[in-house]
Write a structure and sequence with these properties.
This protein has two domains: 248 residues, Aspartate Aminotransferase, domain 2, CATH 3.40.640.10; 133 residues, Alpha-Beta Complex (Aspartate Aminotransferase, domain 1). The protein is 40% helix and 14% strand. β2, α5 and β3 form a beta-alpha-beta unit. The mean pLDDT is 97. Bound molecules: ligand LCS. Ligand LCS binds next to α4 and α5.
């Protein structure tokens, strides 16, 4: 059945009745016995369906993989041990030594680290492009460009890339477009439905929603995903454990209601931050003053729960504000029920050289807030009392 959007998060991928168990059972097993040697041979040869070994596939994990495929309008999904395991698997599948990756001008710090590693080990170079116009993109595509890697909104600057435009230009030269959709989740943005080829997620964030799993998910077209499953996923082996898949299946059921609330809360906080005297700039995709507002309207249904903002003052001021918070936790990660704040320059993006980081728009006065599901008034009250510390000299 072709379910509507929200239903997919609850029922997507569930095919077996499992004796009527409402919740998908946790198949906590490493291996699966075959009824006969011939059956084992056929499963290995791909002539008969059936489970073999949990690194290759596991029934609990499989439901999650089907569910992300349904949510992302992909033909198939795959689960990995972390967002970084998912990203590295996809890039390993798409590139060979000597290739080039064209990336957005800004990515999560460890994605940047991975790109550096690929260059050091395999001479796979990467360059960072603002991707604001078709011409900019065309100019930076090289004969050896093997993929476009796009984060949108970009962590933590909240810059938004026009995915339709990027896919159009990349496809002129048969280059696949990979989108890290972590910040939006499929509920707010579906890159595959608007022409991109592969979606990756840190499922640790909104898809999980409860801060208790580290995981990664990929969705895309059948051919690519089967290749990914039979090569990098199987042989590098960065797979997701059944219990983590079960927690993610549980978390994903409430993604639509959580994202509505995250977005609603974030809107309220943005309105307040924008008029606060200690706040210099606020970056939020659904804000009417966001520079890529027109693109946001075309490809995102709401703004989501992440706000970045710059305060008056430098690192010491930022640290004083963070240390003053009571409800909002100082922590990396995002997308949880709890509001979390972090300082990209010294935390998530600290490994990027300062000069590079500043080119990406990350300076010492920037804070990133993951607005949680608490009452927005409580979140604001906490922020407001913390920002007040800037009025005092001590
Ligand atoms: N992609 C994005 C956009 C991310 O923000 C992260 C993690 C990853 C991929 C990697 O996912 P992981 O392996 O952690 O599941 N971002 C983090 C952050 O901003 N704070 O802590 C982790």
């Amino acid at each position: 059945m072709n379910y509507r959007s929200d239903t997919k998060y609850i029922h997507g991928g569930q095919q077996d009745s499992y004796h009527g168990s409402l919740s998908v059972p946790i198949f906590q097993t490493s291996t699966f016995s075959f009824p006969s040697g011939e059956e084992g041979e056929k499963r290995f040869a791909g002539e008969k369906e059936g489970y073999i070994y949990s690194r290759l596939s596991n029934p609990t994990v499989r439901v999650l993989e089907e569910r992300i495929a349904a949510a992302e309008a992909g033909e198939r999904g795959l689960a990995f041990a972390s967002g970084m395991a998912a990203i590295s698997a996809v890039l390993m599948r798409l590139t060979k030594a000597g290739d080039h990756i064209l990336c957005t001008n800004g990515v999560y710090g460890c994605t940047y680290g991975l790109l550096q590693l690929l260059e050091e080990k395999y001479q796979i170079t990467s360059s960072f492009c603002e991707m604001k116009t078709e011409d900019q993109l065309r100019q930076m595509i090289q004969p050896n460009t093997s993929c476009l890697f796009i984060e949108t909104p970009i962590n933590p600057t909240m810059t938004v890339i026009d995915l339709r435009m990027a896919a159009k230009v990349a496809h002129e030269q048969n280059i696949p477009v990979v989108v890290d959709n972590t910040f939006s989740s499929p509920y707010l943005q579906q890159p595959l439905a608007i022409g991109c080829d592969i979606v990756v997620h840190s499922a640790t964030k909104y898809l999980c929603g409860h801060g208790d799993v580290v995981g990664g998910l990929v969705a895309g077209k059948e051919d690519f995903m089967i290749n990914l499953a039979l090569t990098v996923q199987k042989d590098v082996g960065g797979i997701m454990a059944p219990f983590d898949a079960w927690l993610l299946l549980r978390g994903m059921k409430t993604l639509p209601v959580r994202m509505d609330r995250h977005s609603k809360n974030a809107h309220k906080i943005v309105e307040k931050l924008k008029v606060h005297p200690a706040v210099k700039e606020v970056y939020y995709p659904a804000d009417k003053d966001h520079p890529e507002r027109a693109i946001v309207e075309k490809q995102m249904s709401q703004g989501g729960g992440i706000i970045s903002f710059k305060i008056e003052g430098e690192k010491t001021a930022v640290m004083r504000v963070m240390n003053q918070l009571k409800l909002i936790q100082i922590a990396v990660s995002l997308g949880d029920a709890e509001s979390l704040i972090q300082h990209p320059a010294t935390m998530t993006h600290s490994l990027i050289p300062k000069e590079e980081r500043e080119k990406m728009g990350i300076d010492d006065s920037l804070l990133r807030l993951s607005v949680g599901l608490e009452d927005w008034e409580d979140i604001w009250q906490d922020l407001q009392q913390a920002l007040q510390i800037l009025d005092s000299k001590s």
